[in-house]
From TrEMBL:
Claim: Transferase is one of the keywords in the record: yes
Species lineage: Bacteria, Bacillati, Actinomycetota, Actinomycetes, Kitasatosporales
Entry's Gene Ontology molecular function annotations: transferase activity
Protein name stated in the entry: N-acetyltransferase
Superkingdom of this protein's organism: Bacteria
Key words, A-Z: Transferase
Length: 165
């Protein structure tokens, strides 16, 4: 049984209210935008995701990022997991990402996390994304018990939960 209904159609464009930003599924072709976003915010991202995902490595290369984005693109097409890039209006910069994944730990039917680049951290755009994501998940995704990693549960508490079967 899939973690999503067979007839589920994932959103392909999600405007972030009160900003000129939007979300769309990430693609391998985004590597030139993604790599500087990730590596430019790497230290803060490692503090968030490092203990759980061992990402992003200090030594991550452009090619490793490209391979990772290709994997994400394929997983999106197969509805295995989703990575949405946060982009400016012209799609000249990736400014963050939203991850929507099947549950790795017990107690939810979908796990959601997100980040913004250092330049947006603590600002209006991050607050707009923080407000949007739970509303968007509730409106457009078929979850009964989504879990917002690092938001409604700490990463440390999440890691302590039993693995989902």
């Amino acid at each position: 049984m899939s973690w999503l209904p067979d007839d589920f159609v994932h959103p392909v464009y999600v405007p972030v209210p009160h900003t000129a930003l939007h979300l769309r599924p990430i693609r391998e072709a985004d590597t030139a935008l993604d790599y500087p976003a990730v590596m430019g915010s790497r230290e803060r991202l490692w503090e968030i995701f490092g203990p759980a995902w061992a990402w992003p490595k200090e030594t991550m290369t452009y090619e490793e990022d490209r391979v990772d984005l290709l994997r994400h693109e394929k997983e999106i097409a197969e509805h295995k997991s989703f990575n949405y890039a946060l982009l400016d209006e012209e799609e000249t910069a990736i400014l963050g990402c939203v991850y929507i994944d099947p549950p790795e730990r017990t107690g939810s039917d979908g796990e959601v996390s997100w980040w913004v680049v250092d330049d947006l951290a603590g600002g209006e755009s991050e607050r707009a994304l923080d407000a949007l994501v739970p509303q968007w998940i509730a409106a457009d995704w078929p979850f009964q018990q989504p879990r917002y990693l690092g938001r409604d549960i700490t990463w440390q508490d999440w890691l302590a939960l039993p693995r989902a079967s």
